[in-house]
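Re: weekly structure request thread

Next one in the queue (160 aa):
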Amino acid sequence: MNTYMIATPHPVQALRRFFKTSGTTTSNSSGDICHVDIHMNPETKDQFVLRDDIKLALNDALHVRHQTRVIACMKDEGLVTLMPHRIVAKLEVVLNVVVSEQLTHTDDTQPRAKPGLRPCGTRENYTHIHSPSAGPRLRDPQAPTDTNGLKRKADKSSEL
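Done, posted below.
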């Protein structure tokens, strides 16, 4: 029995996240493998994995590779991509899912900022919030108007 397959009643495809950094790809630990369901086309008997299932497991996925080969979505006889998007299943191997880049952390809580960018915590553009004099001036109370837009005289009968 293949070491990449797990014992389930439904076949699954093993996937591993690969990080794309400056033109090369690097793998994280080999123990970081996830599995998605494999489906079968009843007419052609082709086994495939839905691209949406891959995106669900690894939401930052760019493309799928097996060794150096990029695995494109399956196409019909007219070379039109099948919908929903499908990737050929390879039961005997772990497919590498390439993602944009690995997040690096300077400590346990803060991601490292890219060069030339200020940290998110700066609030230089919001200094006017703490200074009420910098904001808009409040309007004076307005006299009530009637339906024609004319100012009404105060009703003396309501005064006691």
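Residues 12-99 form one domain. The longest strand covers residues 12-21.
Next request, please.
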